[in-house]
Amino acid sequence: MIRTPLESTLRTQLVDSHLLSEPPARDTFMKLGQSTLMGTLGGLRPLVAVYLGLKAHNHFSYTEWDELDTTYGLITGLEPREEDHWVHWIWHIGINATANVQTSRNLTPRQRETEFNRYIQRAIQIGDDALKEHPRSADIRLQIAELYREKLKDPCEASRLYGEMIGLPDSLSYVERFHYYFMADCPGREKDAYEGLMRLYKESENNHLPTLIVKIKKLEVLLKIPIHQWIPDQDPDELIRRQRRSGEPLPGGIRLP
Amino acid sequence: MATDDATQAQQLGGRNWMISGSRIWTIARGTLTQLIRMKTFYFLIAIAFLLVIVGNLNLQASAASQLSMIKKVSFGTMDLFAWLFAIVATAVLIPRDIEDRTLYTILSKPVLRIEYLLGKLVGVLLVIAIALIGMFIVFSLIIHARTVAFAGAELEYLKGAGKPAADIQLEVNAITSQGLRPALGIAVLAIFLKSAVVASVTIFLSTFASSSLFSIIIGMILYLVGNAREMAMSFWEYESDGSMAVALISKVFKILIPDYQLFSFAEGIVLGEKILPHLVWSMAGMSIFYAGFFIALALLVFYDKEF
Q: What is the pLDDT of residues A109-158, one digit of tens each?
Protein backbone atom coordinates (compact mmCIF):
# COMPACT_ATOMS: atom_id res chain seq x y z
CA MET A 1 0.00 0.00 0.00
CA ILE A 2 2.73 2.45 1.04
CA ARG A 3 5.72 0.85 -0.62
CA THR A 4 4.51 0.73 -4.23
CA PRO A 5 3.73 4.48 -4.60
CA LEU A 6 6.95 5.26 -2.71
CA GLU A 7 8.92 3.06 -5.12
CA SER A 8 7.24 4.68 -8.12
CA THR A 9 8.09 8.18 -6.86
CA LEU A 10 11.68 7.17 -6.17
CA ARG A 11 11.97 5.54 -9.59
CA THR A 12 10.69 8.68 -11.31
CA GLN A 13 13.14 10.85 -9.35
CA LEU A 14 16.07 8.54 -10.08
CA VAL A 15 15.21 8.38 -13.79
CA ASP A 16 14.74 12.16 -13.98
CA SER A 17 18.14 12.73 -12.37
CA HIS A 18 19.63 10.19 -14.85
CA LEU A 19 20.94 8.03 -12.00
CA LEU A 20 18.74 5.21 -13.24
CA SER A 21 18.21 4.35 -16.90
CA GLU A 22 14.80 3.94 -18.44
CA PRO A 23 14.08 0.32 -19.42
CA PRO A 24 15.55 -0.35 -22.87
CA ALA A 25 13.14 0.15 -25.77
CA ARG A 26 11.20 -2.87 -26.98
CA ASP A 27 13.07 -3.15 -30.27
CA THR A 28 16.37 -3.23 -28.36
CA PHE A 29 15.09 -6.23 -26.41
CA MET A 30 14.01 -8.01 -29.55
CA LYS A 31 17.49 -7.71 -31.03
CA LEU A 32 19.43 -8.81 -27.95
CA GLY A 33 20.83 -12.34 -27.98
CA GLN A 34 19.84 -14.79 -25.26
CA SER A 35 22.93 -14.29 -23.10
CA THR A 36 23.01 -10.52 -23.44
CA LEU A 37 19.29 -10.39 -22.70
CA MET A 38 19.82 -12.40 -19.52
CA GLY A 39 22.67 -10.10 -18.56
CA THR A 40 20.51 -7.06 -19.09
CA LEU A 41 17.64 -8.52 -17.12
CA GLY A 42 20.10 -9.52 -14.42
CA GLY A 43 21.02 -5.89 -13.80
CA LEU A 44 24.33 -6.16 -15.62
CA ARG A 45 23.49 -3.56 -18.23
CA PRO A 46 26.89 -1.73 -18.09
CA LEU A 47 28.77 -5.04 -18.40
CA VAL A 48 26.61 -6.07 -21.35
CA ALA A 49 27.28 -2.69 -22.96
CA VAL A 50 31.05 -3.14 -22.48
CA TYR A 51 30.84 -6.63 -24.00
CA LEU A 52 28.89 -5.27 -26.98
CA GLY A 53 31.45 -2.46 -27.28
CA LEU A 54 34.22 -5.03 -27.64
CA LYS A 55 32.08 -6.92 -30.15
CA ALA A 56 31.62 -3.68 -32.14
CA HIS A 57 35.38 -3.14 -32.06
CA ASN A 58 35.76 -6.60 -33.53
CA HIS A 59 33.31 -5.76 -36.34
CA PHE A 60 35.34 -2.60 -36.98
CA SER A 61 38.56 -4.66 -37.23
CA TYR A 62 36.92 -6.92 -39.84
CA THR A 63 35.15 -4.00 -41.61
CA GLU A 64 31.72 -5.56 -40.95
CA TRP A 65 29.86 -2.26 -41.05
CA ASP A 66 26.26 -3.46 -41.00
CA GLU A 67 26.95 -5.69 -38.00
CA LEU A 68 28.73 -2.80 -36.32
CA ASP A 69 25.71 -0.59 -37.00
CA THR A 70 23.35 -3.12 -35.38
CA THR A 71 25.66 -3.58 -32.40
CA TYR A 72 25.92 0.14 -31.75
CA GLY A 73 22.13 0.34 -31.99
CA LEU A 74 21.98 -2.11 -29.09
CA ILE A 75 24.70 -0.32 -27.11
CA THR A 76 22.98 3.04 -27.37
CA GLY A 77 19.67 1.34 -26.58
CA LEU A 78 21.17 0.05 -23.34
CA GLU A 79 23.11 3.19 -22.44
CA PRO A 80 21.56 6.13 -24.27
CA ARG A 81 23.05 8.63 -21.79
CA GLU A 82 26.63 7.68 -22.66
CA GLU A 83 27.55 10.36 -25.21
CA ASP A 84 30.72 8.58 -26.36
CA HIS A 85 28.72 5.65 -27.75
CA TRP A 86 26.87 8.00 -30.12
CA VAL A 87 30.06 9.79 -31.16
CA HIS A 88 31.78 6.47 -31.94
CA TRP A 89 28.75 5.20 -33.85
CA ILE A 90 28.67 8.29 -36.09
CA TRP A 91 32.45 8.12 -36.56
CA HIS A 92 32.44 4.43 -37.51
CA ILE A 93 29.57 4.65 -39.99
CA GLY A 94 30.17 8.14 -41.33
CA ILE A 95 33.96 8.16 -41.56
CA ASN A 96 35.29 4.59 -41.45
CA ALA A 97 32.55 2.75 -43.34
CA THR A 98 32.33 5.39 -46.07
CA ALA A 99 36.13 5.47 -46.50
CA ASN A 100 36.18 1.69 -46.65
CA VAL A 101 33.56 1.43 -49.41
CA GLN A 102 35.16 4.28 -51.36
CA THR A 103 38.45 2.42 -51.52
CA SER A 104 37.07 -1.11 -51.81
CA ARG A 105 38.42 -3.03 -54.79
CA ASN A 106 35.52 -5.50 -54.58
CA LEU A 107 32.94 -2.89 -55.59
CA THR A 108 32.20 -1.33 -58.94
CA PRO A 109 32.27 2.50 -59.11
CA ARG A 110 28.46 2.60 -59.08
CA GLN A 111 28.30 0.28 -56.08
CA ARG A 112 30.90 2.42 -54.29
CA GLU A 113 28.73 5.47 -54.77
CA THR A 114 25.56 3.68 -53.68
CA GLU A 115 27.19 2.24 -50.59
CA PHE A 116 28.84 5.58 -49.76
CA ASN A 117 25.46 7.33 -49.93
CA ARG A 118 23.83 4.62 -47.84
CA TYR A 119 26.38 4.89 -45.03
CA ILE A 120 26.62 8.67 -45.03
CA GLN A 121 22.82 9.03 -44.86
CA ARG A 122 22.77 6.48 -42.06
CA ALA A 123 25.45 8.44 -40.17
CA ILE A 124 23.46 11.67 -40.52
CA GLN A 125 20.37 9.89 -39.24
CA ILE A 126 22.34 8.52 -36.25
CA GLY A 127 23.56 12.07 -35.62
CA ASP A 128 19.97 13.36 -35.55
CA ASP A 129 18.97 10.62 -33.07
CA ALA A 130 22.04 11.40 -30.97
CA LEU A 131 21.14 15.08 -30.77
CA LYS A 132 17.61 14.20 -29.66
CA GLU A 133 19.18 12.32 -26.73
CA HIS A 134 21.95 14.89 -26.07
CA PRO A 135 20.66 18.25 -27.31
CA ARG A 136 23.58 20.19 -25.78
CA SER A 137 26.40 17.97 -26.94
CA ALA A 138 29.34 19.70 -28.63
CA ASP A 139 31.13 16.40 -29.30
CA ILE A 140 28.24 14.95 -31.30
CA ARG A 141 27.90 18.15 -33.35
CA LEU A 142 31.66 18.13 -33.96
CA GLN A 143 31.41 14.60 -35.36
CA ILE A 144 28.44 15.43 -37.61
CA ALA A 145 30.18 18.61 -38.79
CA GLU A 146 33.12 16.46 -39.82
CA LEU A 147 30.79 14.41 -42.04
CA TYR A 148 29.49 17.51 -43.81
CA ARG A 149 32.98 18.95 -44.05
CA GLU A 150 35.01 15.94 -45.17
CA LYS A 151 32.53 13.59 -46.76
CA LEU A 152 29.65 15.64 -48.14
CA LYS A 153 31.66 18.81 -48.84
CA ASP A 154 28.74 20.88 -47.62
CA PRO A 155 30.20 24.07 -46.05
CA CYS A 156 26.76 25.51 -45.25
CA GLU A 157 25.74 22.60 -43.00
CA ALA A 158 29.23 22.40 -41.48
CA SER A 159 29.06 26.12 -40.67
CA ARG A 160 25.60 25.70 -39.12
CA LEU A 161 26.83 22.93 -36.82
CA TYR A 162 29.97 24.82 -35.75
CA GLY A 163 27.70 27.78 -35.06
CA GLU A 164 25.47 25.67 -32.84
CA MET A 165 28.54 24.62 -30.87
CA ILE A 166 29.41 28.19 -29.83
CA GLY A 167 28.78 28.58 -26.12
CA LEU A 168 27.99 24.95 -25.48
CA PRO A 169 29.79 23.36 -22.53
CA ASP A 170 32.92 21.45 -23.63
CA SER A 171 33.08 23.13 -27.03
CA LEU A 172 36.59 23.83 -28.27
CA SER A 173 37.93 27.35 -28.74
CA TYR A 174 38.13 27.15 -32.53
CA VAL A 175 34.43 26.49 -33.22
CA GLU A 176 33.57 30.14 -33.77
CA ARG A 177 36.42 30.54 -36.28
CA PHE A 178 35.36 27.37 -38.07
CA HIS A 179 31.76 28.61 -38.13
CA TYR A 180 32.88 31.60 -40.22
CA TYR A 181 35.52 29.69 -42.25
CA PHE A 182 32.83 27.39 -43.64
CA MET A 183 30.31 30.18 -43.92
CA ALA A 184 32.80 31.93 -46.21
CA ASP A 185 32.44 29.01 -48.65
CA CYS A 186 28.66 28.86 -48.36
CA PRO A 187 26.96 30.56 -51.34
CA GLY A 188 24.88 33.55 -50.24
CA ARG A 189 26.45 33.77 -46.77
CA GLU A 190 29.70 35.49 -47.77
CA LYS A 191 28.73 38.89 -46.37
CA ASP A 192 27.89 37.46 -42.92
CA ALA A 193 31.09 35.44 -43.01
CA TYR A 194 33.16 38.52 -43.85
CA GLU A 195 31.65 40.46 -40.96
CA GLY A 196 32.23 37.60 -38.55
CA LEU A 197 35.80 37.03 -39.67
CA MET A 198 36.60 40.73 -39.49
CA ARG A 199 35.22 40.87 -35.96
CA LEU A 200 37.48 37.98 -34.96
CA TYR A 201 40.41 39.62 -36.78
CA LYS A 202 39.94 42.88 -34.86
CA GLU A 203 39.24 41.11 -31.57
CA SER A 204 42.75 39.76 -30.99
CA GLU A 205 46.09 39.35 -32.73
CA ASN A 206 45.98 35.71 -31.68
CA ASN A 207 43.24 35.29 -34.26
CA HIS A 208 45.49 36.40 -37.14
CA LEU A 209 45.89 32.82 -38.25
CA PRO A 210 46.79 31.82 -41.84
CA THR A 211 43.37 30.33 -42.65
CA LEU A 212 41.53 33.36 -41.26
CA ILE A 213 43.67 35.70 -43.37
CA VAL A 214 43.23 33.55 -46.49
CA LYS A 215 39.45 33.53 -46.03
CA ILE A 216 39.28 37.32 -45.48
CA LYS A 217 41.50 37.96 -48.51
CA LYS A 218 39.28 35.77 -50.65
CA LEU A 219 36.13 37.53 -49.43
CA GLU A 220 37.65 40.99 -49.93
CA VAL A 221 37.96 40.21 -53.64
CA LEU A 222 34.64 38.37 -53.90
CA LEU A 223 32.64 41.08 -52.08
CA LYS A 224 34.50 43.89 -53.87
CA ILE A 225 35.58 45.50 -50.60
CA PRO A 226 37.31 48.88 -51.25
CA ILE A 227 41.09 48.41 -51.20
CA HIS A 228 41.62 50.89 -48.37
CA GLN A 229 39.50 48.61 -46.15
CA TRP A 230 41.57 45.51 -46.91
CA ILE A 231 43.56 44.00 -44.08
CA PRO A 232 47.28 44.76 -44.31
CA ASP A 233 48.40 41.13 -43.92
CA GLN A 234 49.90 39.35 -46.86
CA ASP A 235 47.97 36.37 -48.19
CA PRO A 236 49.97 33.35 -46.87
CA ASP A 237 49.00 31.38 -49.99
CA GLU A 238 50.37 34.13 -52.23
CA LEU A 239 53.94 33.44 -51.04
CA ILE A 240 53.54 29.75 -51.91
CA ARG A 241 52.02 30.59 -55.31
CA ARG A 242 54.84 33.03 -56.07
CA GLN A 243 57.52 30.55 -55.09
CA ARG A 244 55.82 27.85 -57.11
CA ARG A 245 55.86 30.14 -60.16
CA SER A 246 59.51 31.13 -59.74
CA GLY A 247 60.70 27.65 -58.85
CA GLU A 248 62.44 29.00 -55.73
CA PRO A 249 62.68 26.60 -52.80
CA LEU A 250 60.56 27.22 -49.69
CA PRO A 251 62.31 27.91 -46.38
CA GLY A 252 64.04 24.66 -45.38
CA GLY A 253 64.94 23.90 -49.01
CA ILE A 254 61.59 22.30 -49.87
CA ARG A 255 60.72 22.48 -53.55
CA LEU A 256 57.11 22.49 -54.67
CA PRO A 257 56.14 20.38 -57.66
CA MET B 1 27.68 -17.01 36.72
CA ALA B 2 25.31 -19.94 36.63
CA THR B 3 22.73 -17.82 38.39
CA ASP B 4 23.19 -15.05 35.81
CA ASP B 5 22.61 -17.46 32.94
CA ALA B 6 19.64 -18.96 34.67
CA THR B 7 18.18 -15.50 35.24
CA GLN B 8 18.77 -14.56 31.64
CA ALA B 9 17.24 -17.81 30.46
CA GLN B 10 14.28 -17.22 32.71
CA GLN B 11 13.90 -13.72 31.32
CA LEU B 12 13.98 -15.11 27.79
CA GLY B 13 11.39 -17.61 28.82
CA GLY B 14 8.78 -14.92 28.54
CA ARG B 15 9.52 -11.67 30.26
CA ASN B 16 12.57 -9.93 28.81
CA TRP B 17 12.55 -9.46 25.06
CA MET B 18 15.28 -6.84 24.87
CA ILE B 19 17.46 -7.39 21.82
CA SER B 20 21.13 -7.28 22.70
CA GLY B 21 23.53 -5.57 20.30
CA SER B 22 26.48 -7.38 21.81
CA ARG B 23 24.93 -10.80 21.15
CA ILE B 24 24.18 -9.81 17.55
CA TRP B 25 27.75 -8.59 17.18
CA THR B 26 29.13 -11.87 18.62
CA ILE B 27 27.12 -13.90 16.08
CA ALA B 28 28.11 -11.49 13.29
CA ARG B 29 31.80 -11.88 14.18
CA GLY B 30 31.40 -15.65 14.22
CA THR B 31 29.74 -15.50 10.78
CA LEU B 32 32.53 -13.29 9.48
CA THR B 33 35.16 -15.79 10.70
CA GLN B 34 33.14 -18.65 9.23
CA LEU B 35 33.01 -16.97 5.81
CA ILE B 36 36.68 -15.98 5.88
CA ARG B 37 37.54 -19.62 6.58
CA MET B 38 35.61 -20.50 3.42
CA LYS B 39 38.32 -18.51 1.57
CA THR B 40 35.79 -16.07 0.17
CA PHE B 41 38.37 -13.30 -0.26
CA TYR B 42 40.43 -15.27 -2.80
CA PHE B 43 38.23 -13.90 -5.54
CA LEU B 44 39.86 -10.48 -4.95
CA ILE B 45 42.97 -11.80 -6.71
CA ALA B 46 40.85 -12.82 -9.72
CA ILE B 47 39.16 -9.41 -9.79
CA ALA B 48 42.48 -7.55 -9.55
CA PHE B 49 43.74 -9.69 -12.44
CA LEU B 50 40.63 -8.92 -14.52
CA LEU B 51 40.97 -5.18 -13.87
CA VAL B 52 44.64 -5.19 -14.85
CA ILE B 53 43.71 -6.89 -18.15
CA VAL B 54 40.86 -4.46 -18.86
CA GLY B 55 43.06 -1.53 -17.82
CA ASN B 56 45.67 -2.51 -20.37
CA LEU B 57 43.42 -3.35 -23.32
CA ASN B 58 44.68 -1.39 -26.27
CA LEU B 59 41.49 -0.38 -28.05
CA GLN B 60 41.16 2.20 -30.78
CA ALA B 61 39.15 4.50 -28.57
CA SER B 62 39.64 7.80 -26.80
CA ALA B 63 41.32 7.88 -23.38
CA ALA B 64 38.03 8.93 -21.77
CA SER B 65 36.24 5.95 -23.35
CA GLN B 66 38.88 3.53 -22.14
CA LEU B 67 38.68 4.91 -18.60
CA SER B 68 34.90 4.71 -18.76
CA MET B 69 35.20 1.05 -19.78
CA ILE B 70 37.51 0.27 -16.83
CA LYS B 71 35.00 1.92 -14.50
CA LYS B 72 32.04 0.06 -15.93
CA VAL B 73 33.79 -3.31 -15.79
CA SER B 74 34.99 -2.65 -12.23
CA PHE B 75 31.63 -1.55 -10.89
CA GLY B 76 29.80 -4.22 -12.88
CA THR B 77 32.06 -6.85 -11.30
CA MET B 78 31.56 -5.37 -7.83
CA ASP B 79 27.80 -5.42 -8.36
CA LEU B 80 27.85 -8.99 -9.67
CA PHE B 81 30.00 -10.17 -6.78
CA ALA B 82 27.93 -8.36 -4.15
CA TRP B 83 24.51 -9.72 -5.08
CA LEU B 84 25.80 -13.19 -5.97
CA PHE B 85 27.70 -13.42 -2.70
CA ALA B 86 24.71 -12.08 -0.78
CA ILE B 87 22.56 -14.90 -2.17
CA VAL B 88 25.05 -17.77 -1.94
CA ALA B 89 26.62 -16.95 1.44
CA THR B 90 23.28 -16.23 3.11
CA ALA B 91 21.67 -19.33 1.65
CA VAL B 92 24.50 -21.54 2.88
CA LEU B 93 24.82 -20.20 6.43
CA ILE B 94 21.67 -21.45 8.20
CA PRO B 95 21.68 -24.96 6.63
CA ARG B 96 25.38 -25.25 7.48
CA ASP B 97 24.71 -24.26 11.08
CA ILE B 98 22.04 -26.97 11.21
CA GLU B 99 24.38 -29.50 9.61
CA ASP B 100 27.25 -28.64 12.00
CA ARG B 101 24.77 -28.54 14.89
CA THR B 102 26.10 -25.07 15.76
CA LEU B 103 22.56 -23.77 15.56
CA TYR B 104 21.42 -25.99 18.46
CA THR B 105 24.31 -24.78 20.60
CA ILE B 106 23.51 -21.16 19.83
CA LEU B 107 19.76 -21.43 20.35
CA SER B 108 20.16 -23.39 23.58
CA LYS B 109 21.92 -20.31 24.97
CA PRO B 110 19.97 -17.23 25.99
CA VAL B 111 19.95 -15.90 22.43
CA LEU B 112 16.81 -14.59 20.78
CA ARG B 113 16.06 -15.96 17.35
CA ILE B 114 15.90 -12.46 15.92
CA GLU B 115 19.41 -11.90 17.30
CA TYR B 116 20.58 -15.00 15.52
CA LEU B 117 19.04 -13.88 12.19
CA LEU B 118 20.35 -10.32 12.53
CA GLY B 119 23.80 -11.60 13.53
CA LYS B 120 23.94 -13.78 10.43
CA LEU B 121 22.80 -10.91 8.20
CA VAL B 122 25.30 -8.46 9.73
CA GLY B 123 28.07 -11.06 9.31
CA VAL B 124 27.33 -11.50 5.62
CA LEU B 125 27.09 -7.73 5.14
CA LEU B 126 30.44 -7.26 6.89
CA VAL B 127 32.10 -9.63 4.44
CA ILE B 128 30.45 -7.83 1.51
CA ALA B 129 31.52 -4.44 2.89
CA ILE B 130 35.14 -5.57 3.37
CA ALA B 131 35.21 -7.12 -0.10
CA LEU B 132 33.69 -4.01 -1.72
CA ILE B 133 36.23 -1.77 0.03
CA GLY B 134 39.02 -4.12 -1.13
CA MET B 135 37.76 -4.06 -4.71
CA PHE B 136 37.34 -0.29 -4.60
CA ILE B 137 40.98 0.10 -3.47
CA VAL B 138 42.20 -2.13 -6.32
CA PHE B 139 40.01 -0.21 -8.77
CA SER B 140 41.21 3.17 -7.43
CA LEU B 141 44.86 2.23 -7.88
CA ILE B 142 44.30 1.06 -11.46
CA ILE B 143 42.07 3.92 -12.58
CA HIS B 144 44.36 6.52 -11.00
CA ALA B 145 47.44 5.06 -12.70
CA ARG B 146 45.65 4.94 -16.07
CA THR B 147 44.24 8.47 -15.71
CA VAL B 148 47.68 9.90 -14.94
CA ALA B 149 49.19 8.02 -17.89
CA PHE B 150 46.45 9.05 -20.36
CA ALA B 151 46.34 12.69 -19.20
CA GLY B 152 50.14 12.97 -19.31
CA ALA B 153 50.34 11.56 -22.83
CA GLU B 154 47.50 13.80 -24.06
CA LEU B 155 49.05 16.88 -22.45
CA GLU B 156 52.41 16.19 -24.06
CA TYR B 157 50.82 15.59 -27.47
CA LEU B 158 48.59 18.68 -27.40
CA LYS B 159 51.41 20.93 -26.17
CA GLY B 160 53.62 19.58 -28.95
CA ALA B 161 50.86 20.29 -31.48
CA GLY B 162 50.71 23.90 -30.23
CA LYS B 163 47.05 23.78 -29.20
CA PRO B 164 45.64 26.72 -27.16
CA ALA B 165 45.84 26.33 -23.38
CA ALA B 166 42.02 26.44 -23.03
CA ASP B 167 41.59 23.52 -25.45
CA ILE B 168 44.34 21.52 -23.73
CA GLN B 169 42.63 22.07 -20.39
CA LEU B 170 39.31 20.95 -21.87
CA GLU B 171 40.81 17.73 -23.25
CA VAL B 172 42.63 16.95 -20.01
CA ASN B 173 39.45 17.67 -18.02
CA ALA B 174 37.54 15.25 -20.26
CA ILE B 175 40.04 12.54 -19.28
CA THR B 176 40.26 13.33 -15.56
CA SER B 177 36.46 13.53 -15.27
CA GLN B 178 36.41 9.81 -16.13
CA GLY B 179 39.02 9.08 -13.45
CA LEU B 180 38.77 8.62 -9.71
CA ARG B 181 36.08 10.81 -8.08
CA PRO B 182 34.74 10.85 -4.50
CA ALA B 183 31.24 10.25 -5.94
CA LEU B 184 32.32 6.75 -6.92
CA GLY B 185 32.33 5.93 -3.20
CA ILE B 186 28.55 6.54 -3.26
CA ALA B 187 28.31 4.04 -6.13
CA VAL B 188 29.97 1.45 -3.87
CA LEU B 189 27.43 2.33 -1.18
CA ALA B 190 24.61 1.84 -3.73
CA ILE B 191 25.92 -1.64 -4.53
CA PHE B 192 26.14 -2.42 -0.83
CA LEU B 193 22.53 -1.31 -0.25
CA LYS B 194 21.32 -3.58 -3.04
CA SER B 195 23.24 -6.54 -1.65
CA ALA B 196 21.78 -5.86 1.83
CA VAL B 197 18.26 -6.20 0.40
CA VAL B 198 19.22 -9.34 -1.54
CA ALA B 199 20.76 -10.88 1.60
CA SER B 200 17.68 -10.16 3.70
CA VAL B 201 15.39 -11.73 1.06
CA THR B 202 17.64 -14.80 0.96
CA ILE B 203 17.74 -15.09 4.75
CA PHE B 204 13.95 -15.18 4.67
CA LEU B 205 14.06 -17.92 2.01
CA SER B 206 16.59 -19.98 3.96
CA THR B 207 14.37 -20.03 7.07
CA PHE B 208 11.87 -22.33 5.36
CA ALA B 209 14.03 -23.87 2.61
CA SER B 210 14.80 -27.53 2.83
CA SER B 211 18.27 -27.08 1.32
CA SER B 212 20.69 -24.27 0.53
CA LEU B 213 20.41 -25.14 -3.18
CA PHE B 214 16.71 -24.28 -3.05
CA SER B 215 17.46 -20.90 -1.44
CA ILE B 216 20.18 -20.13 -4.00
CA ILE B 217 18.00 -20.98 -6.99
CA ILE B 218 14.92 -19.17 -5.70
CA GLY B 219 17.08 -16.24 -4.57
CA MET B 220 18.54 -15.90 -8.05
CA ILE B 221 15.17 -16.23 -9.76
CA LEU B 222 13.77 -13.56 -7.45
CA TYR B 223 16.75 -11.36 -8.24
CA LEU B 224 16.24 -11.69 -11.99
CA VAL B 225 12.50 -11.20 -11.72
CA GLY B 226 13.00 -8.25 -9.36
CA ASN B 227 15.33 -6.64 -11.87
CA ALA B 228 13.06 -7.19 -14.83
CA ARG B 229 9.89 -6.45 -12.86
CA GLU B 230 9.23 -2.93 -14.10
CA MET B 231 10.07 -3.75 -17.73
CA ALA B 232 8.02 -6.96 -17.72
CA MET B 233 5.03 -5.33 -16.05
CA SER B 234 4.95 -2.39 -18.44
CA PHE B 235 5.20 -4.72 -21.47
CA TRP B 236 2.52 -7.00 -20.12
CA GLU B 237 0.14 -4.18 -19.23
CA TYR B 238 0.72 -2.65 -22.68
CA GLU B 239 0.10 -5.96 -24.47
CA SER B 240 -3.04 -6.74 -22.45
CA ASP B 241 -4.64 -3.44 -23.47
CA GLY B 242 -5.38 -2.34 -19.90
CA SER B 243 -7.09 -5.54 -18.77
CA MET B 244 -8.31 -5.41 -15.14
CA ALA B 245 -7.09 -8.93 -14.37
CA VAL B 246 -3.60 -8.17 -15.63
CA ALA B 247 -3.51 -4.91 -13.68
CA LEU B 248 -4.52 -6.81 -10.52
CA ILE B 249 -1.94 -9.57 -10.99
CA SER B 250 0.66 -6.94 -11.76
CA LYS B 251 -0.17 -5.13 -8.48
CA VAL B 252 0.15 -8.34 -6.45
CA PHE B 253 3.43 -9.08 -8.19
CA LYS B 254 4.72 -5.61 -7.38
CA ILE B 255 3.81 -6.03 -3.72
CA LEU B 256 5.49 -9.43 -3.39
CA ILE B 257 8.71 -8.89 -5.34
CA PRO B 258 11.16 -6.12 -4.49
CA ASP B 259 12.15 -3.79 -7.31
CA TYR B 260 15.86 -4.59 -7.47
CA GLN B 261 16.35 -2.40 -10.51
CA LEU B 262 15.65 0.61 -8.31
CA PHE B 263 18.86 -0.12 -6.43
CA SER B 264 20.97 -0.02 -9.60
CA PHE B 265 21.51 3.74 -9.29
CA ALA B 266 25.27 3.11 -9.12
CA GLU B 267 25.09 2.93 -12.96
CA GLY B 268 24.28 6.63 -13.26
CA ILE B 269 26.96 7.62 -10.73
CA VAL B 270 29.58 5.62 -12.63
CA LEU B 271 28.57 7.37 -15.87
CA GLY B 272 29.22 10.72 -14.14
CA GLU B 273 25.68 11.88 -13.38
CA LYS B 274 25.23 14.31 -10.50
CA ILE B 275 24.29 12.73 -7.17
CA LEU B 276 21.31 14.14 -5.32
CA PRO B 277 21.89 13.54 -1.57
CA HIS B 278 18.19 13.27 -0.73
CA LEU B 279 17.84 10.41 -3.23
CA VAL B 280 20.76 8.55 -1.67
CA TRP B 281 19.16 8.97 1.75
CA SER B 282 15.80 7.82 0.40
CA MET B 283 17.42 4.73 -1.12
CA ALA B 284 19.22 3.98 2.15
CA GLY B 285 15.86 4.28 3.93
CA MET B 286 14.23 2.01 1.36
CA SER B 287 16.98 -0.60 1.86
CA ILE B 288 16.52 -0.52 5.64
CA PHE B 289 12.77 -0.87 5.16
CA TYR B 290 13.22 -3.90 2.86
CA ALA B 291 15.82 -5.50 5.13
CA GLY B 292 13.59 -4.97 8.17
CA PHE B 293 10.52 -6.30 6.34
CA PHE B 294 12.19 -9.51 5.18
CA ILE B 295 13.90 -10.08 8.55
CA ALA B 296 10.47 -9.73 10.16
CA LEU B 297 9.05 -12.28 7.71
CA ALA B 298 12.01 -14.57 8.39
CA LEU B 299 11.40 -14.28 12.12
CA LEU B 300 7.74 -15.25 11.65
CA VAL B 301 8.85 -18.52 10.05
CA PHE B 302 11.89 -19.07 12.25
CA TYR B 303 10.25 -18.21 15.57
CA ASP B 304 8.40 -21.47 16.12
CA LYS B 305 10.57 -23.64 13.95
CA GLU B 306 11.58 -26.91 15.61
CA PHE B 307 15.08 -28.20 14.96
A: 899 999 999 999 999 999 999 999 999 999 999 999 999 999 999 999 99
Q: B273, A81: Cβ pair inside 8 Å?
A: yes
Beta-ladder partners of A254: A250
Whether residue A194 has pLDDT greater than 90? yes
- Using one digit for the tens of pLDDT, what is the confidence trace for B221-245? 999 888 888 777 777 777 777 777 8
Whether A2 and chain B come into contact, CB under 8 Å, resolves to no
Report chain A's terminal Cα–Cα distance, integer Å: 83
Cβ–Cβ < 8 Å for A173, B162: no
> How far is A175 from A164, CA to CA, in rounded Å?
9
- Rounded CA separation A140/A81 (Å): 13
Which of B:188-227 have CB within 8 Å of A?
223-224, 227
CA distance B224 to chain A (A): 5
Q: Residue B110 is which amino acid?
A: P
B248 at the A interface (CB within 8 A)? no
- A21-44 as b/e: b if 16+ CB within 10 A: bebbeeebbebbeeebbebbbbbb
Chain A residue at shortest CA distance from B187: A19
From the list A23, A50, A173, which residue is nearest B166 (CB)?
Answer: A173
- For residue A19, give the nearest of B140, B288, B187 by alpha carbon: B187
Residue of B174, B223, B276 lying closest to A17 (CB–CB): B276
Q: Nearest chain B residue to A58 by CA: give it.
A: B59
- The whole-angstrom separation of Cα B284 and Cα B190 is 8
What's the pLDDT at A250?
A: 65
Rg (CA), chain A: 24
Q: Best interface-test mutation with A: which of B259, B263, B288, B294 has the largest number of A CBs within 10 A?
A: B259
Do B267 and A20 form a contact (C-beta atoms < 8 A)? yes
